[in-house]
From TrEMBL:
InterPro entries: AfsR-DnrI-RedD_regulator, BTAD, P-loop_NTPase, Sig_transdc_resp-reg_C-effctor, TPR-like_helical_dom_sf, TPR_rpt, WH-like_DNA-bd_sf, WHD_MalT. It holds the Pfam family BTAD. This is Transcriptional regulator. It comes from Bacillus salacetis. It comes from the Bacteria.
């Protein structure tokens, strides 16, 4: 971004003049500014807005920051730059992060960058930790800028509590938020009615400031004539003596106030000597008056003296700083109109002379004066030479205003104007017109032999294709732009940007290998690249996950001190990328953490796209975390899809559809899974993203495997494997090989299995993807025990035996290939991997009871005779033995349906006459998880962490242990032990919730406790306290009475002293309330 010049006089209020009048009613209103987040001062020119604010700024007893906005500030970058400097003038530490980002911006900023700057500006304001008044005078100069208006509207939604913003404008802003601010008493509005001078104020002005005596009739006539318009009153009285008041001024019959002003201005002008009249008229063409430009126009060398004299006489001229002045807007307009009407030739020649004076010194002033008099060719020449400066300063609206009147014929003679027109249109998303303008510049460049012009215009066209996701078109155009730029020996900086653009475009189209080559060419120029995590994305899309992760973590660590200084990079955000990498690597908790940070960032910078990316990555993480139900992942994906629909970014819907495809496949919903996959493919194929398309195809293949549609899965996986190879993604190739090997194993195709398994293990070792075998990953099997039988078979077939032995995964003789998942609390349910075992699947009821008995005694082997006594107490030994053998056989067939005859069971171990659960077997038992999490929560000191752990554990306690065996002795002890753990955990959770003032949660768990054990007195006490805190004393007393009744009936005792004390406190408080 080019340097934005900051004129210090814009950042300070004008000096107070003797003629300024302090008005009691208006002053009282202005004094309340520090009580409101926003003050709006709006009225037409000449009503004294700036005067009133000048007096306020000088009188206020706290630091106020002033910014006089000029017409040249009508683009967001100069506007924000000067606003930051206005605050820095009083608070030097302010704005470092905002300034750094503004300096990095290129010409125009995106919506996401705009939101980021709003967040950053607000945060830096809060960090000042002191009330601050910021005055924006003449805001009407920038009201036509849509970007500034958008920034202001959204900034006001989140205006910091220590900021008091004052906006003065000729027009009231039309921001929707103003209504709600007014309702909430957050807006102070000072309108034209507040600024109109009353008759008493006019009298004070005349008699006390101008020392003119006036009778009541004349005073009333002045008030009636001027309607309290401050500038008209000042003009009227400043040039009169009291004897003249009854003359022509008071007899004026002007139809409008503007007519009155013109009449008064003519009187002011006619009272000046001829030389001064001439000076006033001829210099009226200037926006600002400085001695050097005035002397150049008038050629008399007396400008400095005349300007000082006019300022002293208060002839509607305002001093900007020691040597620069400006006419009041209305007076300037009057003078200019008169000059144009009466001396048209002088008006044109003066503008031409002024333009020549400013050429090479002040581009904008030069252009203004040329275009004022229709000198379009000169204007076109200046724009051609200096338009880039305006673009680099972010002055898009200014440059567009200068380009609009230039005829097309002249734009073709000066074809850089077509390029500038294209740049502005592209940055404002008018892509069709932008491309037409760029093409005109390309054609002109080719005709004139100007390779540089043709190259930069082609780069503009390529950026359109990048913005609109047309990578195939962008590649051709970029290649041509690079060739032309190399022909003219383009600078290193320019070449690095072009190489970088081509690299990103290739990556987006799935050509990561070619993308990396171009990225290295950009890197070889040894220039800093604003890369948007491009290198990490190349690593991700070529399967180098660890490298991508390390690079991003280092970047995150380096940038830890600059978290507030942040512009959105959409899907390239560091946390968003880290989240998907961690999901691919099988680290779901880290993936969840980074997804949460990404979502928070999206909300902080008000970037819905980034927030949606966070939601889809959260879906990937939740799928891999056992404690979450599958509907939560589905909810994450659907939230992401809803946001993408809302912001109309269809390409962003591909990844959540991919996640849904796998999720639905795991649930056995094949048709829905394929439908989700096809919806995702539709979006990726539209934008020709081969890599993401291939990932979605892989997911469709995995979904088919889960639903045992092996033939369909195989066809998809073969194609995916080939496409991953084309993309250069070794991780994807490894994934496709694994699932092909899995299909071969399941379908008994041994030769094909051996070949594919060898390929899979080769790629796994070369890519160092060892975690794929030991953790649940996004594209791996839902049950990692699925790997074991494949590895066992591979080792038997001497495929990478040393590696399998080293991993410790092939040492057993057999393995069923899934995890047993057992629920015993509240009801009994068994899953073999993802498949539930129905009641009929047990064949014999005693087989199920025998399994439950083994799980109850999971930590030991039990003698056969003891089993007989507990399970078949009414049978003799021989009968019990026969029943045991039949039930055991039925049990083994149920939990290991594919076990071969006479092959040892993986889950059940026999040692002589002792039987039980194999301690080396992998299974998931709800009581184990319940006890672990509750015990951890009981010992946790941090209340928030304790609450999370306890809730996680207690959620598993759906009821008594093995409720179908309520009267069986063999599970009674375990049932009572687990119930005590539940009661202790629920009591602790209730207590922690009270500490956190979460009374609803406390009430819920106390009621759960009493459902399990109605004599648990601490639960009654906590319920009484919660309802007392909720100001529901009758309910608190009701719980005490219930406690008293239950304890008496069940145990024959009174409540304990702490419970009675609680009751006394509640009743006494109730009595006090009655008074």
């Amino acid at each position: 971004m080019g340097l934005i010049p900051v004129i210090q006089s814009q950042l300070m209020p004008p000096p107070v003049k003797d003629s300024f009048m302090r008005r009691a009613a208006l002053h009282k209103k202005l004094a309340s500014i520090p009580r409101y987040p926003l003050t709006l001062l709006h009225a037409r020119a000449g009503y004294g807005k700036s005067t009133a604010l000048t007096l306020f700024a000088h009188d206020i007893h706290q630091d106020s920051c002033w910014y006089s906005i000029s017409p040249n500030d009508d683009d967001i970058i100069p506007f924000l730059t000067k606003l930051v400097h206005a605050i820095k003038a009083k608070f030097p530490s302010f704005g470092k992060k905002v300034q750094a980002e503004l300096e990095e911006l290129q010409t125009q900023i995106s919506d996401e960058q705009l939101w980021s700057l709003i967040s950053m500006f607000g945060n830096e304001t809060v960090e000042l930790k002191t009330p601050i008044v910021v005055i924006l005078d003449d805001y009407h100069h920038v009201q036509k800028s849509m970007v500034i208006e958008k920034w202001m509207k959204h900034f006001l939604e989140y205006i910091p509590s220590n900021l008091h913003l004052v906006i003065s404008s000729r027009r009231k802003p039309s921001w929707g938020i103003l209504t709600s601010m007014k309702v909430k008493a957050e807006l102070l509005e000072i309108s034209q009615d507040d600024l109109v001078l009353s008759m008493e104020e006019i009298k004070h002005l005349l008699e006390d400031i101008y020392e003119i005596s006036i009778d009541a009739h004349d005073l009333q006539r002045i008030h009636q004539l001027t309607e309290g318009w401050a500038i008209a009153v000042h003009m009227l009285v400043s040039n009169l003596h009291s004897s003249e008041l009854a003359g022509s001024f008071l007899d004026n019959r002007s139809d409008t106030l503007q007519d009155l002003f013109d009449f008064l201005a003519l009187e002011v002008l006619s009272k000046q000597p001829f030389a001064i009249q001439d000076f006033l008229l001829r210099t009226s063409i200037l926006e600002e008056l400085a001695p050097d430009v005035c002397d150049a126009l008038l050629e008399n060398g007396k400008a400095e003296l005349i300007l000082q004299k006019l300022s002293e006489q208060n002839v509607f001229i305002q001093e900007i700083d020691g040597s620069r002045y400006r006419y009041h807007a209305l007076f300037k307009e009057f003078l200019q109109n008169r000059l144009r009407r009466e001396r048209e030739a002088d008006f044109a020649e003066l503008n031409r002379n002024a333009a020549r004076f400013f050429e090479g010194k002040d581009t904008e002033n030069a252009l203004y004066h040329y275009l004022q008099v229709g000198e379009y060719e000169y204007g076109a020449k200046v724009i051609s030479l200096h338009g880039l400066e305006l673009l680099q300063k972010g002055k898009l609206q200014t440059l567009l205003d200068y380009l609009k009147p230039i005829p097309e014929k002249l734009k073709s003679e000066y074809p850089f104007l077509w390029f500038y027109q294209g740049e502005i249109s592209r940055l404002r998303s008018s892509y069709e017109w932008a491309e037409a303008c760029y093409q005109r510049a390309v054609d002109s460049g080719e005709q004139m032999g100007d390779d540089y012009l043709a190259s930069i215009a082609l780069e503009g066209i390529a950026r359109i294709y990048l913005d609109t996701i047309q990578p195939d078109k962008a590649e051709r155009v970029l290649q041509k732009a690079i060739t032309l730029r190399e022909n003219v020996n383009g600078s290193k900086e320019e070449m690095a940007k072009l190489y970088h653009l081509l690299s990103e475009n290739l990556l987006n189209s799935g050509q990561a290998v070619k993308a990396e080559k171009w990225y290295k060419r950009a890197e070889s120029l040894n220039l800093p690249l604003e890369e948007g995590n491009l290198k990490a994305r190349i690593y991700l899309r070529t399967g180098r996950l660890d490298k991508a992760r390390d690079l991003l973590l280092k970047k995150k660590s380096r940038n830890a001190d600059f978290e507030g200084s942040h512009l959105s990079q959409s899907h390239r955000e560091t946390d968003i990328l880290l989240s998907i990498i961690e999901a691919f690597r099988g680290s779901p908790e880290d993936s969840k953490k980074f997804a949460e940070q990404g979502m928070k960032l999206g909300m902080d910078i008000q970037s819905p796209f980034v927030e949606a990316c966070g939601w889809m990555r959260m879906g990937h993480a939740v799928q891999l975390i056992e404690r979450y139900e599958s509907f939560l992942a589905e909810k994450c994906y659907k939230t992401s899809l809803d946001i993408m629909d809302h912001i109309d970014v269809p390409r962003g819907k591909a990844e959540p559809y991919m996640g849904l495809c796998i999720l639905l496949g795991k649930q056995g919903q094949y048709e829905k899974a394929i439908e989700a996959g096809q919806k995702g493919l539709y979006e990726t194929e539209k934008v020709k993203d081969v890599w993401l398309s291939t990932l979605i195809q892989l997911c469709m293949g995995i979904a088919a495997v889960y639903c045992e549609k092996y033939e369909s899965a195989y066809e998809v996986l073969v194609e995916a494997r080939n496409q991953f190879e084309g993309c250069g993604d070794r991780y994807g190739m490894m994934l496709a090989s694994f699932w092909k090997a899995f299909i071969y194993y399941e379908t008994g195709r041994e030769d094909s299995f051996n070949n594919e398994m060898r390929q899979f293990l080769n790629e796994l070792q070369v890519g160092e993807y060892h975690y794929f075998l030991t953790r649940r990953t996004t594209f791996g099997p839902a049950d990692i025990q699925n790997f074991v039988p494949l590895l066992v078979k591979a080792q038997k077939n001497n495929i990478h035996s040393p590696f399998i032995s080293e991993m410790g995964l092939g040492v057993m003789d057999n393995h069923p290939g899934y995890t047993l998942k057992i629920q015993t609390l509240g009801k009994f349910r068994l899953q073999l991997g993802n498949r539930f075992v129905s009641e009929s699947g047990w064949q014999r009821g005693k087989a199920k009871e025998l399994f439950e008995f083994f799980m109850t005694n999971k930590n030991k082997l039990v003698d056969r005779e003891e089993i007989f006594r507990e399970i078949w107490p009414d049978q003799d030994e021989d009968s019990a033995n026969r029943s045991f053998k039949v039930s055991l056989n039925s049990l083994l067939k149920t939990i290991e349906p594919h076990r071969k005859a006479r092959e040892e069971s993986y889950f059940i171990r026999r040692n002589g006459s002792f039987y039980g659960v194999n301690p080396d077997a992998v299974y998931q038992l709800d009581t184990v998880l319940f006890e672990e999490w509750v015990t951890e929560g009981l010992g946790e000191k941090d209340p928030y962490q304790a609450k999370e752990l306890l809730e996680r554990g207690l959620k598993l306690y759906e009821g008594d242990y093995l409720p179908d065996h309520r009267f069986a002795d063999w599970c009674l002890t375990e049932r009572e032990r687990l119930q005590v753990i539940f009661l202790r955990g629920a009591e602790m959770l209730a207590q922690v919730s009270v500490r956190l003032s979460d009374f609803e949660t406390c009430i819920h768990w106390c009621e759960r406790i009493l459902m399990e054990e109605d004599t648990w007195e601490e639960a009654y006490r906590l319920l009484m306290y919660c309802y007392y805190q909720k100001n529901n004393r009758p309910q608190a007393i009701k719980w005490y009475n219930k406690c008293k009744k239950v304890l008496s009936a069940e145990l024959g005792v009174e409540p304990m002293e702490p419970t009675k004390a609680m009751y006394k406190m509640i009743t006494e408080a109730a009595e006090l309330d009655m008074w």
